[in-house]
Amino acid sequence: MTGQDAMSEETKQIQILHAPTEAEPFLVVDKPEGLPSAPLHEGENSALTQAMVLFPKIAAVLGRKTVEKGLVHRIDTATRGCVLIAATQSAYDFFLRAQEEGAFTKWYSAKVDYVPKLFKMVGGFSFPPIETSDITPGKTIVVESRFRAYGKHHVGVRPVTEESGRAALKKSGDKCYRTEITLKDKDTAVCRITAGYRHQVRCHLAWIGLPVKNDFLYNPLCNGNFSEKLCFTAYKIAFPNPSDGSLVTISLET
To answer: Does the predicted TM-score (pTM) go above 0.90?
Structure first.
């Protein structure tokens, strides 16, 4: 990271969408693009680090990793959107169980490019489950796959199905992930998931020939240009309240 990049990252600040209360012991923030969800090491700038400055009590929560505290889920650094953080240990433990039971729903909005036959242009993709030309505005399609890490340093992922071949199947996990995709117009897609894998939505969109605009990992039209903003937003999340199980839905203002 250059000095200019670090300075730019430092200026990116979370916005509070929901502050924790006794009845609703969780925090939801709007994470700006370019800011990591969690630090790699204690004290590094991130959405979680900034949240702990505003609400110090959340630092007492023990997460999967010590540095992640009560962070319930991540979104990619390049993605703007809703991030949920548990404010108490009991809330965090509740959220983990709720995720395993499929009680979370997340929505994403993407500006997309139309790239038929992308799977032939970008390495590692198998034949997609639907032709790009068959995807029309207003029609919801479901894309499902397992995933495997892909590329140098495993920076990306690729979908894996029974047709992917023995080598790909051996490298993939056992769980199948589902993305519901609705094309609102010729260049805007809305996606819904209940369980998420790293880059799941971005990869599934690319697989069917609708890669996110400026996605240098999955969109061959980027031509190596890393400077453009990723046109991808995690704009809404729904989950049960740890206090009483009631459904909570929080979204960004659009």
So the answer is: yes
